[in-house]
Amino acid sequence: MQCVKVLGGVLGAAAxxxxxxxxxxxxxxxxxxxxxxxxxxxxxxxxxxLEAVMGQLDANRIRENLRELSKEPHLATSPRxxxxxxxLLRRWQDPExxxxxAGTSEYEVLLSFPSQKQPNRVDVVGPAGGILFSSQxxxxxxxxxxxxxxxxxxxxxxxxxxxxxxxxxAKYGVAGVLVYTDPADINDGRSLPNETFPYSWGLxxxxxxxxxxxxxxxxxxxxxxxxxxxxxxxxSDNASGFPPIPTQPIGFKDAEVLLCNLQGASAxxxxxxxxxxxxxxxxxxxxxxxxxxxxxxxxxxxxxxxxRNSSNVLGIIRGAVExxxxxxxxxxxxxxxxxxxxxxxGTAVLLELSRVLGTLLKKxxxxxxxxxxxxxxxxxxxxxxxxxxxxxxSFSKLQERAVAYINVDISxxxxxTLRAQGTPPVQSVIFSAAKQIRAPGPSSLxxxxxxxxxxxxxxxxxxxxxxxxxxxxxxxxxxxxxxLGISSxxxxxxxxxxxxxxxxYPTYHTAFDTFDYVDKFVDPGFSSHQAVAQTVGSVLLRLxxxxxxxxNVSDYSETLRSLLQxxxxxxxxxxxxxxxxxxxxxxxxxxxxxxxxxLGQHVSALQKGTPNPLQVRMLNDQLMLLERTFLNSRAFPxxxxxxxxxxxxxxxxxxxxxxxxxxxxKAMNTGPGSAxxxxxxxxxxILVVALEGAAATLRPVADL
Amino acid sequence: MQCVKVLGGVLGAAAxxxxxxxxxxxxxxxxxxxxxxxxxxxxxxxxxxLEAVMGQLDANRIRENLRELSKEPHLATSPRxxxxxxxLLRRWQDPExxxxxAGTSEYEVLLSFPSQKQPNRVDVVGPAGGILFSSQxxxxxxxxxxxxxxxxxxxxxxxxxxxxxxxxxAKYGVAGVLVYTDPADINDGRSLPNETFPYSWGLxxxxxxxxxxxxxxxxxxxxxxxxxxxxxxxxSDNASGFPPIPTQPIGFKDAEVLLCNLQGASAxxxxxxxxxxxxxxxxxxxxxxxxxxxxxxxxxxxxxxxxRNSSNVLGIIRGAVExxxxxxxxxxxxxxxxxxxxxxxGTAVLLELSRVLGTLLKKxxxxxxxxxxxxxxxxxxxxxxxxxxxxxxSFSKLQERAVAYINVDISxxxxxTLRAQGTPPVQSVIFSAAKQIRAPGPSSLxxxxxxxxxxxxxxxxxxxxxxxxxxxxxxxxxxxxxxLGISSxxxxxxxxxxxxxxxxYPTYHTAFDTFDYVDKFVDPGFSSHQAVAQTVGSVLLRLxxxxxxxxNVSDYSETLRSLLQxxxxxxxxxxxxxxxxxxxxxxxxxxxxxxxxxLGQHVSALQKGTPNPLQVRMLNDQLMLLERTFLNSRAFPxxxxxxxxxxxxxxxxxxxxxxxxxxxxKAMNTGPGSAxxxxxxxxxxILVVALEGAAATLRPVADL
Lengths: 704, 704
Known about the structure:
- Two copies of one chain form a homodimer.
- Chain A is α/β, with parallel strands linked by helices.
- Among the domains of chain A are: 43-109 and 306-545, Aminopeptidase (3-Layer(aba) Sandwich), CATH 3.40.630.10; 555-698, Up-down Bundle (Transcription Elongation Factor S-II, Chain A).
- Chain A is built from 19 helices and 16 strands.
- In chain A, the strands form five sheets. A seven-stranded mixed sheet of chain A has the order 1-9-11-10-12-16-13, sandwiched between helices. Chain A has a three-stranded antiparallel sheet with strand order 3-2-8, with no helix packed on it.
- In chain A, α2 packs antiparallel against α14.
- The model of chain A is unreliable at 3-35 (pLDDT under 50).
- The interface between A and B is large, with 71 and 71 residues.
């Protein structure tokens, strides 16, 4: 899991601080290819096979996978990362339980590492130049794993080197940035050693969250091109998206020493935390504190950019009937440290699911209707790099043939409830799967019935349903949905939000995210891992095996109507003042709704009749390709990879179509006839054309 | 037919002339959507039906179509253009011989017209201000048609208004441009009235070639968006691609008066023509000529930009088996004047072919396997506007489903031989059709055997074959191939080049392009029209009805290899000096060749076996989508719509991949490490990725 979208907020806050200490309250978003002649063109989902798969997914095997995967730190491109590449290959090439074929693809990508010779450091320097305080260079060795020589010291990847010292230099007068996670935000306020790991799931005082501070995703030097050795590369001086000033993360124990000794006005209430003092804004230390007057904070960052070879591992089960339709299921492999939760909890599930399906395959019991592609991505933590390079390299093939992408990164944040994000067409298949499986725990509820108790919304069509979240850019689904327009989803088990306000599991990206942490505190017994494996397995089989693709495209109608209503309510008046009509957008949404309704009737008719294989294929092509119609590569020229007109990042305050919302927000304070108002009109036209194109794809195929 | 790509040359030459007269030697480049349950999934091309269609295509009906179509001038959006819209609709909705459905779509587009109140004029003004000479405002009324009040006076569409008078003002000191066509270039030197129409096919001395001087194609105000009434429009002041200075075409009779009285140095030999004098460069008139010293040329241009409604007419025959696969066949409808040759010779063929197919359809004798879409485009002469707006509006649907686009604009330039342009996958189907049909004329050769005598090349694969030309941007195929990546072709009958060096038929875009002109001089008896109808009919049926799509994608191997060899021979040394290796490109071409070979074996195996319908569909999808894989919307950011990495415009001198050729040509004189050399590397990477993507699309679909 990767925190790209956090950065705006973090740097924004940083900009307000003259001293360059940041109150880092992260808001995490965080072979042969012919069907066997005997394969029947009407092959459909086999409920017995589905039941068998559900039954064979084994919590204990997931636990053993996790133990192996998280045994050592496996930072992207490290020797242990390569060992895991071989482990995945071995599993997927196993003659008893492997896939039809598996292989690796390697990219030469720009990563960022701290210097081994010159560790990054944060010091307080007295007026005479003496060092009065130094931050911890590594996390305390509480359970043994933190002492592993392969633990990468805490750092902010892609932050430039430099040694600023309380100087006001950069854009808003910030010379360097320190980031920490406050116990108020991560530990429900607890901060004492005996209240935290290994005594509870809390973050120990020395825990430091690593992360990538690159603004975009993909290899920074090869935007839109796969990072093959021969590919054109930008000079790293010309590459964009790196933080402008040195940045370093520290633990809250060290942050306390700095923050609680600051002078100046009190920070706003929202910035206060649980370190036991009133947080001040500085600049400078208070005279009654531990540092003499004139002391300054010195931040030394020695990060280096390095070209490294990062591997993806890919495996495929060839479809029996439609091998040219791909259901993709992936997770990243690389971690910041041991990465038991992130990402190995997902990889442990991935391996168990591929084992169960591989075994059925090798026994000859089953072969899916469509091809299933399994993926283990490299270098996700640095910016979704492996998955992005894959989409760049396989752009045409995926655009032609990919049915859906399933992502399971962290599979279990906590063991209260399912959490799913996705685009509307995948809602129904996730619901179907969730209704079929029993939730872990003492209740006898289904995953669906349990889920709806924790997170729900009122749908105008269905009534009360679980809430499906939208997809940001927090994991490897981002290039699939935003760059390629492939219907995507992300699935996990997560918190009871009434019991914790932790923004994410507390040891996220620290050296405390270990096997024992998961085994003791996150999911003892691994029943939530098993529940995720079953949910994903069911979704995967439904997508790969159903005669009719279980993508309910008409669920987009509800989304479009709600985005439209927001535009009408919150922007209608403003637009009217500028003689911009929402009429064409209303018409386009209506056309979509109508086409979706007619298509729904067509689906029902086909399902009741005895459709021939081509009729089903034609319908399925409409369902598969709908998501593609929302792409416009010219819509957002400043947003790298983002081309989905419904799910591009929204910075405007109105929760409507992102292009419209953002353009209105920029135009709002400009005069009539400004370029910003022209951009509003351009965005509206782009949207109308996309929605009309989407409706056209859903309409009867011989309509003019 | 439209002369977009001419302009570079013309304006280039203009730049050399201080006086602003141009030696205009144009180098012309120039319902329900379900298959009936009874439709068999194995439905294939029926040779009896094909023979029947060939036999029913009637030269005399084509002649009568042409008479009606060219009866009056039908400039885009004129009342007569709208009458023809209704004529097409009536024909395509005819209960006995019409299509399944037909309709119009209207766009609001920016056109350019001369002022009716203030005619454009070219005068010679004496030193005292008196007018000594005026160019003809209209063509002489030689056959009656030229006197029609609806003949638009000669003008250069989109040239800005202005009244320059021998002043040096614009970039190269040119204040205005006069364009004429020299008898040396259009009439094989003949220039006397009794040597030209109506006594021969030659251009009369008063004939003036109209044309669009817009640099791009599509509606100038709505690039990349369909020009619907509500669409975002650029201010016409912000629109780009219009000529910068007033421009006016004149006849060679008027040009002679100006040119033969110029003084100054002699123009280069290549600029000399057949007006019977030595062409001088000016500036100023010679003292022993007809104009007194100090006389100047005054050009008055009063063109106006106007938003007009232009219609496309579309009709469809629904496919019986795969209605979601479209074979498109179109021509434009609008002409500059009567447009008997351009475009009505093509529309006359289009109507005859739709009648024959429509009759079979309505009788219940035949329904194609795939859908056939017929199109009559509007406002082509102003810049391929109707077709471009259609591709913008239907982008997703066409990208998903279009098998091929067939264009027949001018169907008969002359009656010597077939001429075809297209991308490599369409070569084989055109050859198959051409082998089946007898060439018009006394010989008993097939069209193919006749063609090979006029235009041939030695193919490393096939030996001597007719030459298939490449597609520029001279007609409505441009947006289909360059913007959408749909395999496209343009078909016509044309000259014996040993008998004329006319760059195009002489009355092109003049008021002399009339029915009688065609009937007497271009194709008496209309047998060449019939031959084109048969060729196109056969290509169309083969594409719409064949079980296996007759797109021979492996013919791209030959093209790629030849482009690669040119790069190696003519750029290899230069690239090596700059440490740029062609190795990855060589590998990519080899991968393509290998994938194409393996696919070819797969096709043979399937054709010999008893493939199921989905196996055939999967293969056909590979064939259909190959062309799409060559698109990269980010490859040529400055070239509007061009995104096909093989067929984008080439300005570099080396006849290789356009992006590479152009980038090398710009980099050649810059130092190592320049941005221009980085662009060479970027273009190479774009090309390699596209070719590898193309190879991936051809490889077995379950290959990783």
